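Follow-up to my earlier ticket, as requested here are the two runs.
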Amino acid sequence: MAKKKLRVGVLFGGKSGEHEISLRSARSILKAIDRKKFEVVELGISKEGRWLGTGEAQMLLGAAADVIDMPGGESGLTIAAAAAEPEMGTGLDVVFPVLHGTFGEDGTIQGLFELADIAYVGSGVLGSAAGMDKDAMKRMFFAAGLPLTPHVTLLRSEWKADAKKCVRAVEKALRYPVFVKPANLGSSVGISKVKMRAELGPAMDLAASFDRKIVIEEGVGGPGVKPRELEVAVLGNDAPEASVVGEIIPAKEFYDYEAKYELNGADESVSIIPAKLTKAEEKKIRAMAVAAFKACDCAGLARVDFLMSPAVKGRSSEIVLNEVNTMPGFTSISMYPKLWAASGLSYSKLIERLIELGIERHEEKLETSFSR
C-alpha cells in the first residue's frame, strides 16, 4: 500500500512590511517541494490581514494583493479547520509558515498554531518572539555569556518626552558610529547608520515609526571600520547543527533593505560561501551560532548573523553576535538555503527536513501533561 502523503499548508503573505519577501519565499518552496511525498495547500494572508482560500492564495502569488483582496471572495481554510480531523482529508498535517516579520515571525501566528494544536515548521512562541525582539534577544545572549556590541534600548515614549535626555544617554554609553533599529522588525527596515549627533534625531524618528522600542548599537570596530558580515544557518530542534559560514559583501555601506532586495547586476550585494576564515574562527562562529539558537529557545531553523572587525596591530579580530532570524528569506538563492546547499543539503531536502522537524516537535509536545 502506498504511503499516505502528508498534507502541508504553505502559509504566506501577511500584514508585515515583508509581505513581498514572503511571496518570493513561498513561490520558491512551492516550486521545489516534493509533490510525490507532500500534498500542498496554498494558504495566503492579504496585506490587510484577510485569510485567503487556495484560489485567492494562488492569485496572490502572481498578482498584487490589492488587486485580489476583494470582499465576497472564496473563504479561507481556517486554522481550526486545518487542525480538525486530518485523517478525514479535511485538515492539514503540518503548516509551513513562510511569514517574515511582524505577525508571522514574532510568536503571534505560532500562538495560533499552538491553540489549534497543529504541527508547524520553525520556532515556538518564545523562540519566535525572542528572535524578533532585538532587545529581548540581546538579554538572552548576554545571559548565555555570548559576545555582543555595546547597545542602549529606549522607548518611543521616552524619545518623545525628552529627546535631549535620550541623546545624552546614547552618547554617554556609546561612541559613533551607531546603528539605530526598531526592536521588532526584519529585513533591515527602519535601520539607520548614524555617524554624528545631527543624524541621530531623524534616525530615532524613523525607527520609532516602526516600533515602540528602539535599539541603538555601537558600530563594531569603531569609526572608519567596516566589519565583515557573516552568517550561519542552523537546523534542528534540541540538537541543532550549524552550516558552513557565509559572508555578505554589501553593495551599500551596510546590508540594508535596498542592498538585500532591490539592487541588481553589478550593484547587488555579493555572498561568499564558505567565508574565508581560519579553521579556529570558523569553529568559534559555528559554535556561537548553535549557542545563540539554544539561548533563544529556537527550533527548526534560524539564520544567525555575526559582525567581525578586522585584526589590527596589537589587537586580534573581534567577533560579535548581531541577531538571530527565525524565519529567514527562503528562496532558493537566499542565504539560508545556500548555506545548507554548500554544507551538502539540497533545497528540496532542506524543505523536507524542516517539515520532519516540525512534526517531531509537535509529537514531542504530546508527551507533556497540561493538567493534573
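Run two:
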Amino acid sequence: MCLLTIVLLVFPGTKLDSLWNLNPDARLAFQSLGSWSVLLMLTVGTGCALAAIGLWYRKRWGVPLAIAILFINIIGDLVNVVTRHDYRSLVGLPIAGAMIFYLSRFRTRRKTH
C-alpha cells in the first residue's frame, strides 16, 4: 500500500487515480504535504520493510523496531480520533495492542529458551 501511495503521488492523473476514491481524505492530506508526502511514505515503507526483515530473520533489533512502529501507529490512530473525530481509527487500537502483546511475549520467550 505504501508503494502504491507513492506511485499515486508521483504520477497523478493516471488511471490509478480512481483508487483515491477509497479514501479521499488521504488524498487531500497527502496533497497538503506536497513533496514531503513522498518522503514520508518512503520513510514509513522503509521502516516497515526493515521491521519485517528483522522479524523474518529473527534479528535482535526486529522485535523492538516492530513494537516501536506499532506504538507510533497507535499514537496516530489516537490523534485521528481526537483531532479529526474519525472513530474508524479506533479499530486499529486493539489490533496494534494485540500485535504488541504477541511480539512482547515472543521476545520474552526467545530469551528464556
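The only thing I checked on run two: The chain has a mean pLDDT of 92. Let me know what else you need.
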